[in-house]
From TrEMBL:
GO terms for molecular function: high voltage-gated calcium channel activity. This is Ion transporter. It is a multi-pass membrane protein. Its main location: membrane. One of its GO terms (biological process) is calcium ion import across plasma membrane. It is found in: Membrane. InterPro entries: Ion_trans_dom, VDCC_alpha-1_subunit, Volt_channel_dom_sf. The keyword Phosphoprotein does not apply. It comes from Candidatus Gallipaludibacter merdavium. Residues 15-235 form the Ion transport domain. Keywords: Calcium, Coiled coil, Glycoprotein, Ion channel, Ion transport, Membrane, Transmembrane, Transmembrane helix, Transport, Voltage-gated channel.
Length: 263
C-alpha cells in the first residue's frame, strides 16, 4: 500500500478520527446506561475497528520506531490494544475458554475518550506545564502528605475508641484528615465527636480540629496551590521576561544612537 494513498490519508486525518472518538464515547455512554441494542454494539465494534486500522496505517506511514517514539502515539496504541477484548469477546466463547478476565478488561474501553485531549488546542503546552509544575512542587506535595500522615496517626491514637467510624485504623484516619483538609463540611467530624464526649473533651476536640483546619486546610493546601500554579505559568513568565529584556536592549541601542548623533 502506497504511503500517499487515499485510504491511508483518510485514517491519518485527525477530523475523521475525532468523529469516531466522539461516536465511540456516545456508544460507551449508552452501554453504561444499560442500553444494549444491537446497533449500539455494532457501532462500538466499528469504532474499535477504525482505531485498530488507524494504528496500522500509522505504523505503515511512520514506521514502528517512529510511531512508538511519540508520546501521543504510545497513548493511542495502548488504548487500542486495551480495547481489543471488546472484539475478542464477540467471537470467542469467553466462559468456555476461561477467559472471563477479558470481560473485565472491556471496562478499560472508557479510557478511549482520553484520546480527545490530543485534539485540544495547546494541550501539549499545558501537559508540559503540568509536568514542570509537578517537578518543581513535589517537595511541597510530599510535605503536605507527611502532615496528613502525622496528624492522622495522632488523631487515630486520640479518637479511635471515641469515633471508630472516622479513626478506627490509620487508614480510616488518613481519609478523615484528608476530608478535613478539603474544608468542605470540615465541622461534621468534630461536631459528631463532641456530641458523644464530655463537655471538656468536646471543647478540646473543637479546638484541635480548628487548628488542623487552619494548618492543613487553609495554610497547607493554599501553599500547595500557589506553588503549583506559579510553576505552571513560570514558562509564560520566562518568555515575558525574555521579551522585556530584548525590548530594553533595543531601547538602549536607540538611545545610544540618538546620543551619538547629537554629539
Amino acid at each position: 500500500m502506497k504511503k500517499d494513498s487515499l485510504f491511508l490519508r483518510l485514517f491519518m486525518n485527525d477530523k475523521f478520527i475525532l468523529f469516531f472518538i466522539l461516536l465511540n464515547t456516545a456508544m460507551i455512554y449508552l452501554q453504561e446506561s444499560n442500553l444494549h441494542d444491537v446497533w449500539i454494539v455494532v457501532l462500538d465494534v466499528v469504532c474499535t475497528c477504525v482505531f485498530v486500522i488507524e494504528m496500522i496505517c500509522k505504523h505503515i506511514v511512520l514506521g514502528v520506531k517512529k510511531y512508538w517514539s511519540s508520546g501521543w502515539n504510545r497513548l493511542d496504541g495502548v488504548l487500542v490494544i486495551l480495547s481489543l477484548p471488546s472484539l475478542v469477546s464477540l467471537v470467542l466463547p469467553i466462559e468456555m475458554m476461561s477467559l472471563s478476565f477479558l470481560l473485565a478488561l472491556r471496562v478499560l474501553r472508557v479510557f478511549r475518550f482520553f484520546r480527545i485531549f490530543h485534539f485540544f488546542p495547546n494541550f501539549s503546552q499545558i501537559a508540559m506545564g503540568f509536568a514542570r509544575a509537578m517537578k518543581q512542587s513535589y517537595a511541597v506535595f510530599a510535605g503536605l502528605i507527611i502532615i496528613i500522615l502525622l496528624f492522622a496517626l495522632i488523631s487515630c491514637a486520640i479518637y479511635k475508641d471515641v469515633a471508630p467510624e472516622f479513626f478506627a485504623t490509620p487508614t480510616d484516619s488518613i481519609y478523615s484528615i484528608f476530608r478535613l483538609f478539603t474544608i468542605e463540611g470540615w465541622y461534621e467530624i468534630p461536631d459528631t465527636i463532641a456530641d458523644a464526649v464530655s463537655p471538656a473533651f468536646a471543647r478540646f476536640t473543637r479546638v484541635y480540629f480548628s487548628v488542623l483546619l487552619v494548618l492543613g486546610g487553609i495554610i497547607g493546601v493554599s501553599l500547595v496551590n500557589s506553588v503549583f500554579v506559579d510553576a505552571m505559568v513560570s514558562d509564560n513568565n520566562d518568555d515575558l521576561e525574555k521579551k522585556m529584556d530584548a525590548l530594553e536592549k533595543k531601547i538602549d541601542q536607540l538611545l545610544e544612537e540618538k546620543d551619538s548623533k547629537i554629539k
